[in-house]
Amino acid sequence: MTCPSTEELAAIYDGSLKGQQAQKIREHVASCPRCSHELHVLHQNLQSVSQAPSPPADLIGKAQKHRQTESITPQVNLLHPRHRPAKKY
Amino acid sequence: MGLIRRVIAGDQAAWEEFVNAYCGFLYSLAWRYARGDVDLAAELVLVALEGLKKPDAEGREFYRLRKYLDSLERFGGRSRFVTWLALVTRNLFRDWFRDQEGRRVLPKEIEGLDPVDQEIFKSVFWEGLSESEAFETLVSKKKIHDFREFQRRLEAIYDKLKERNLLGIYQDLLRRMPSLPLDSPVSPGSMRYIQVADSRPQARPDRALEIAEDQAVAERVGQALSEAILALPAVSRQVLLLHAVQQMSGEEVRRIMGFKKRQRVYDELAKARKKIGGFLSKRGIDANQARRSIGWLDGLLKKDEI
């Protein structure tokens, strides 16, 4: 079996998928390191949600203002360490 | 689901309502990946929202949300929306981080190795898989069959990297990749211990643990590992905890332990790994199984000091 879709994986995690299909996916996940890892990370992420601080006050407004047709990808600034191309070792 | 349907239909007021409802959740996920960088966390929220808006090949926006709604109708698996959102968001973050990293180039030392070694290097250092995950991935690709051979090759890769003192650089890269079983963020001043299973039903990690391991195996492995670590000589144990649990670099461990040479740190780690392997095998536990169990147990079960 190929790896389950994001939707199937989410349903498996929530236990909302039943029957043979669910069984097949569970068996796949148990033998697939990538899918097991995905579920593990999902669990960690959901567990950690309550530990994070509230978003900055202006973030919601900033995100809402963008029209659906606009790109909200931040400008790339090569002087910013995070935006510099990866070093070639 | 009404809100999502309205968002998909292009209702701007619904989009604002959606952002208002889920911005905090997205920020919480982003926070973990941004490692306390407020600006980066905010940037990641925008990345996630942009990813949700992304159109399909026919130019219809919100194709991910459409897929989610379709899945509800198709197989009736009504996953909570936040579960689905957390999965999708993590994928979007991962893609974004990969884009930021740019196209990676193999170090010269690794380029000189055979293709299987290069695959191992990519799995462990680029994809951030644990050793057992990397091994199983390579087994599934029929590139390698024997775990000992895998370990031998991995050791050789570590040696090659050490020659150029690149190990620290790649370990740093690994630390920057979040949510790996053995590389979870550690809060300042805290230690992360190997955990044993909590027998209380409410502490069981829902379906995830059922899929991966049964509790009896997890308890046995956790217990045996705790005992194996306690049985180590004090110096090896301390080095192991500083390096593997507190995620300190070889140089930091050398300084704290007062060793003259950094090589001593690696020697102590190798010694600890060998002793733990021997201890586990005497208990009839396969080292590969133990690694997998620890990956699953981490963060899922109660924190018990060993």
Q: How do the helices and strands line up, and which of them pair or pack?
A:
The complex is a heterodimer of chains A (89) and B (306).
Chain A lengths: L5 H9 L4 H13 L1 H16 L8 H9 L24
Chain B lengths: L1 H7 L3 H23 L3 H16 L9 H13 L5 H21 L6 H4 L3 H12 L4 H10 L6 H17 L3 H10 L29 H7 L2 H16 L3 H12 L4 H8 L5 H20 L4 H11 L9
Helix pairs in contact in B: 1-2, 2-3, 2-5, 3-5, 7-8, 12-15, 12-16, 13-15, 14-15
What does this structure look like?
The complex is a heterodimer of chains A (89) and B (306). With 89 residues, chain A is mainly alpha-helical. Chain A has a domain at 6-44. Helix content of chain A is 53%, strand content 0%. The longest helix of chain A is centred in the middle third of the chain and has 16 residues, at 33-48. Chain B is mainly alpha-helical and 306 residues long. The interface between A and B is large, with 60 and 73 residues.
Number of DSSP helices of chain A?
A: 4
Note the gap between the termini of chain B: 46 Å
* Class from helix and strand fractions of chain A: mainly alpha
Q: Give the % helix of chain B.
A: 55-70%
> Helix amount of chain A, in percent?
40-55%
CATH superfamily descriptor of the largest domain in chain B: RNA polymerase sigma factor, region 2, helix turn helix motif
Regarding quaternary structure, what we see is: heterodimer
Which value, in Å, is the CA radius of gyration of chain A?
Answer: 19 Å
Give the topology string of chain B: H per helix, E per strand. HHHHHHHHHHHHHHHH
- Mean pLDDT of chain A, to the nearest integer, reads 74
CATH architectural label of the largest domain in chain B: Orthogonal Bundle
Number of strands of chain B: 0
Average pLDDT reading of chain B: 73
Q: Which segments of chain A are poorly predicted (pLDDT under 50) over 5 or more consecutive residues?
A: 67-85
Distance between the termini of chain A: 38 Å
Question: Care to count the β-strands of chain A?
Answer: 0
